[in-house]
Write a structure and sequence with these properties.
Length: 89
């Protein structure tokens, strides 16, 4: 189970990066915003995977506290950028 969750966490984190980069390479603010929404969904997935790891006692409370704010901060940054892009479209 641990190996599966580790792999899924890595894929979710990579998806955030990849979708942000892909969107940046697009030719329109609308396309960029669409890719950022996908990246935001991956950040939500990452957040839920961390909660699951904590609930299954695969990580302790200290590790959870150390990492649990990261997906939320990423979602906030992506949301702000999406709002900015939508105001330009």
């Amino acid at each position: 189970m641990r190996l599966v969750l580790t792999s899924q966490i890595q894929r979710a984190a990579l998806s955030i990066l990849s979708n942000t980069a892909e969107g940046f390479g697009r030719n329109s603010p609308r396309d960029f915003a669409r890719c950022l929404k996908i990246a935001s969904g991956s950040a939500c997935e990452l957040e839920s995977l961390l909660v699951l790891c904590r609930d299954l006692a695969l990580i302790n409370a200290e590790e959870y506290a150390r990492f649990s704010n990261e997906p939320t901060q990423i979602q906030r940054m992506l949301s702000g950028l999406i709002r900015h892009l939508n105001s330009r479209a």
